[in-house]
Specification:
The structure is a single chain. By secondary structure, the chain is of the alpha+beta class. The chain is built from 13 helices and 23 strands. β6 and β7 form a beta hairpin. It is globular and about 65 Å long. The structure holds zinc ion (ZN).
Length: about 475
């Protein structure tokens, strides 16, 4: 699963913004002989740090005029490709450029890209719209997401233009075998320090340099030493509690002893920022800004919500994932409502209605005259969170009427029925809603917002809530939860 969430508030009282992610599957990183894969025609990459110099040496498994990077998400807000800022091709006659939805390597004179290409790069943290981010630590250590170097051959410009942006379910050939090395000493992969790490289709992070790893009873933490102390305390204290609560309600998740890796981008003025993503057994977070220096009541609540959302992905996102990137409303909105229900259960004074009102308002704005499923293409990933939470609220209402249960009662059978194939599809979600509510008109309205949007989304949401018993009133055309 590629999942990446961000909570970023520009302190002048602005709203919290979140953005989400997509795709991919996860298998554990393995160590293996890279040379064997060359013989089999696999592409290999050697990623090396030597002091300040970072290089990636590609040896392509076959001839191709274009090689495209499968993870080519844009930098958030500015919507620019991060590789073009951080990477430089050193091999003559080869260029790195943006083509449609992909960063690509191409031979400048036409013909095939040389079989061996060297790239020099300067890793830096950037907030990426829907992808995994490089983490930079104040110790000089750097954590690189393993799939950052994934590349696949494309046989023509026409074939590239025909590639879907979402590669879920698309066969693009095997991922490269990547070897990771640091001249200064061993790298950290999957809890182990290795002189030379090799990843083969695994979804994880490789840490170069020194950050202390602390193995606790319930969590392993790898935290920037300059991180404001309250954040580490909050993660260490709250993550196990919220994980226990989810386990009680939903059964086993993808892990019961996660690693949490947290970087600190400094106390930038007027910024309050938390970003995160989840991989098998691993939560990464990065914090930034003067706004997170002190544990104000608001910051404590936001950070708990953030931990609750990320932890929820070990169930909704890892135990079961979505089928296509456009279905991210299932995992992101679902994780949002899971977090809200967990926070309320663990702290009855938590204002769940205010949190959910933000979802209703944002969904109303972000589905007006445009479909939710295309939100990725506009950089409006927030729609997945907000509208996904609105649909989850309606499902919860239907569940409450049928059995007196809540959102997690609706979710539990969907997770259990899909533990084997690991995918919770849109059809399965909508079918479950019809079954619980015995009202087939609900899914028609949800599908309308998903696929088309509406001129007046508040009216559609109001009808959904009316038929499922979610308490609200209308105020000047706005759905207000009560
Ligand atoms: Zn998320």
């Amino acid at each position: 699963m590629k999942l990446r969430d961000a909570v970023r508030a520009l302190i002048a009282g602005a709203s919290l913004m979140a953005s989400a992610g997509v795709v991919g599957c996860a298998s554990a990183p393995v160590r293996d002989s890279a040379s064997r894969h060359v013989a089999q025609g696999r592409t290999t990459v050697e990623v090396t740090r030597d002091g300040d110099r970072w290089t990636a040496d590609y040896r392509f498994g076959r001839e191709a005029p274009i090689w495209a990077f499968s993870r080519s998400e844009l930098i958030a807000e500015v919507r620019l490709p991060w590789r073009l800022k951080q990477w430089t091709v050193e091999t003559p006659g080869v260029v790195l450029e943006r083509r449609g939805a992909f960063d690509v390597l191409r031979a400048t004179g036409g013909g095939s890209v040389p079989r061996e290409v060297r790239i020099a790069f300067t890793p830096a943290h950037a907030q990426i719209e829907a992808g995994y981010e490089t983490l930079a630590f104040t110790t000089g250590a750097v954590a690189l997401p393993t799939r950052q170097f994934d590349i696949f051959p494309v046989d023509s410009e026409a074939a590239l233009a025909a590639m879907p942006e979402d590669l879920n379910g698309v066969q693009v050939g095997p991922t490269p075998v990547v070897t990771w090395r640091d001249a200064a000493g061993p790298v950290l992969l999957g809890g182990e320090r290795l002189d030379r790490a090799v990843t083969d289709d695994g979804n994880s992070y490789v840490l170069f340099g020194q950050v202390e790893q602390v193995d606790g009873e319930r969590l392993t933490t790898i935290m920037d030493p300059a991180l404001p102390a309250w954040i580490g305390e909050q993660v260490g204290g709250f993550a196990p509690r919220v994980g226990d609560w989810y386990t009680r309600r939903l059964g086993r998740g993808q892990t019961d002893r996660p690693t949490v890796m947290i970087s600190w981008n400094g106390p930038t003025e007027r910024i309050t920022s938390m970003g995160g993503s989840v991989m098998p057994g691993l939560i990464t977070m990065s914090f930034e800004g003067a706004g997170v220096l002190n544990p104000t009541a608001e910051m404590l609540t936001v950070s708990r919500w953030f931990i609750g959302h990320e932890s929820a992905h070990f169930w909704l996102g890892q135990t079961v994932r979505y089928e296509y990137a456009r279905d991210a409303w299932i995992t992101e909105g679902g994780a949002d409502l899971m977090a809200v229900r967990a926070l309320k259960a663990l702290n009855p004074t938590y204002d769940d209605v205010a949190a959910l009102q933000t979802e209703v308002d944002d969904c109303t704005d972000l589905s007006r005259d445009r479909s939710v499923v295309t939100a990725n293409q506009r950089g409006e990933q927030r729609a997945f969170y907000a509208c996904g939470a609105v649909f989850a609220l309606a499902a919860e209402g239907a569940q409450a009427r049928a059995t007196g249960g809540d959102w997690l009662d609706f979710l539990k059978p969907l997770i259990d029925e899909n533990r084997r194939d690991g995918v919770l599809s849109r059809e399965e979600w909508l079918d479950a809603l019809t079954e619980v509510s015995r009202d087939p008109s609900l899914r028609l309205d949800i599908e309308r917002l998903l696929d088309e949007g509406a001129p007046d989304p508040a009216a559609v949401i109001a009808r959904l809530f009316q038929r499922t018993g979610v308490a609200f009133r209308m105020e000047a055309g706005r759905v207000v939860l009560v």
